Amino acid sequence: MPDLLFEIGTEELPPSLIEGFVSQLKENIIKGLEENFIVCKKENTQTFSTPRRIAVLITDIPNIQPEKTLEIKGPPRNKAFDENGNPTQVAIGFTKKANITTDKLITKNINGADYLFASTKVGGKSTKELLPEILVSSLKQITGDKFMTWGSTSEKFARPIRWIVAILDKEIIDFTYANIKSSNISYGHRFLSEQEIKIEQPIEYKNILKENYVLVDSNERKSLIESLAYKLANKINGKPLIENKLLQEVTNITEYPGALLCNFDEEFLTLPPKVIQTVLAKHQKYFVINDRNGKLSSNFIVITNGTEINNETVKNQIKKGNEKVVRARLNDAGFFYKEDLKTPFTFEKQKNSLSKIAFQKKLGSMEEKVTRIIKLSEYIYKRLVAENTKLESSIDDIIQTAQLCKLDLNTNMVFEFTELQGEMGSIYANANGYNKNISEGIREHYYPRFYGDSTPKTESGLIVGIADKLDNITCLFSIGKLPTGSADPFALRRQAQGVIEHTLNRNWNLDLTNLIDVLITNFLNTTSIKDKISGGQDKSIKDFLLQRFITSMENINYESDLIDSVISIRDPLRDIISAKEKIHLLKESFVLRNKERYLPFLIAAKRLVRIVEKDANGGLDKNNLKTNEEQNLYKLFEDINKKIASEKYHSQKDLLDDFTNLTNPINQFFDNVLVNDPDPKIKQTRQSLLKKGKDLFEQICDFNKIVERT
Questions:
Q1: Is the pLDDT of residue 530 over 80?
Q2: Exposed, middle or buried by CB within 10 Å (0-12, 13-18, 19+), for 641?
């Protein structure tokens, strides 16, 4: 069976988009083939990419599209033919659509009515005949931000397309896209291999490109870059700091990686290490090196695009050029750092400057925002103390962290290197003599900054971070900046997830609903914001946080019916720790080890809950309970309620275990007592009795929502 190669050659693509493009191209081709009944094995599909190309190679593609017989359902027979058996316009229209004559129509009975069907054969075309449309469609369907047009073409892509390779074994798949005619001609390295490269057959693609100084396998380039970095660092007894995000980005800006060991003046090592790392790694895409003692060295590694191969002059030019750039950047950073240290890092000295920085358009200044963070942080701290939460930080630590958390937005360093917000605040706080709880809290209040990021270790970072995130969410919701679909420009989902995860990780009993209410009612004292919180908007904010709680529970593999059973009875944001404990208890009891013990109770509880009418109020006169079964059930309900009131249950499990003792009494009640008695008074009493039981069960969850697992 033949092999297919499809390569799109372009001007240099944005490195962050390449992986998404090649993945889309592969999926689009596979989908197009499958829609034409051509099935390929997943293990036979490979993708390749460099800054100048994306490509898909599929081996062992069927030569011919299989034939299939399809039955197409048509109109009812009585509408397709008149009383004389002559076809109506309905029948004629259907036969034209199915490309058959009326004598070929089939009649089938469906649910007592006769319908017409057309049997038609499809398929049988060669794969080569189908591929032009499939490949063009797969390219058209690639989506991304900031696509462009070029020249006289109307087609769009992230960068201008310069060549297209489309071959099935040795045959060219002939089509034109964006004024580019497909061929078997590719191109190697822009500077090291200028000639055209003829691809004789797809299986040669990877090797022939390698001969022309292009490593089309991104994983191979990544491994090579990592190996080169370690090899150079080992020469000076050092170790490169390789973050995966930077490694992936560097991989996507090279076609034939090389590496050079460079250095900067040691005097710059007096700068904070994080500043040097940001300048070199974030801005210049270099790898920094730690020495044998784990301290930042004055050496760094530049990943090249191979242009220095076998040319010492070019190599030295690249080395000197990069060192010159780094020297200038670090000089600037050193100047900014010294200037920033001249200004006392205090809220009193800098709050006027914060008043000149906008939080967001229509949302006032950063000074107003910090004031809210201070108030909400103090409120959170006092609520935790009131709940007897053991805290190591003082209220002064929390307030000072809140006061200082945004001050570095005033600094020269953060103005130039925005990635350092929080980091520089921590560094300047430490330089101004603040304790570790405060300086570390300033950095940590931004956590998590990305998926998988660290969680705050300091209480100050956690409390101030929760206050900051809730303020961000509430204020941005007030001006309609809600996440939509995959778009979340202000990272509100991540911030809400951070509030939930941090609270759960610390096992803090925080009433998040109350915090939002207090923030809106008491602390949004800026009229321009408070006026924007319209009716029902607070509910949208709480629902947004609730969805993040649900996501957290799903991420640790709790079943959706268990989650729903807990969150449906009362607001889980009032106490997400308790809500999580209940969900965990339900999984242990009804999904994992104890199903046999708890399943009979679940069945009985659902039996009770389902029969309770909406207007049952749970209030009853026990003198109206006539049968032994209802008197016994009433007594058992009262006994459990008394235990709850006197706090005799040490855990939710103890309560659930007591519930299981109700299984037989509930079943005996239903077996011997008619709930909806003809006498309205008796019916009302029995409904109220069951409502009392339903209310009792909802101390844990709505058992009716739990799936019975056998």
A1: no
A2: middle
